Amino acid sequence: MVIGAFALPAWGRPRATLDLDFIIQTTEVPKELVRKLGDLGFHFDEEWDRYNPMLRAFHKRFRSGRIPVDVMLSRDEHDAAAFSRRKKKRFDSRYLWFPSAEDLLLQKLKVGRPQDFVDAAGVVERMRGRLDQRYLIRWAAKLGITAELAHVL
User: What pTM does this model have?
Assistant: First the structure.
């Protein structure tokens, strides 16, 4: 499922980004995916892995030149729930899986960097009146991000 800034055109305000983020529902990155990325010129970024010891168990980076592709493994109950609510959306000439607007918003708040709050506010602005408030409030409480959600709502 496409996440991060590449998912913003589906529900929020598009913005420039230099990386592509995916989340997959598995406990390790499949060898077939690594092979396909290799066929496209992407290699496992060992330096990034070495400098990010807290992330390496569930986040792998592949790189082709200056272009990173981040592959994240589902790591919590919310990530699993997001897969059951994902939406297939047209992207260029293909259809790809994206998180629902609510799940993209929650993912952005979980990461919590300044740009993620800007992105989350863009989702709220674009989807105003169409977001499932009960779902958001329930998950924000479970994830410990109630204040963050209140800030962008």
Answer: 0.91
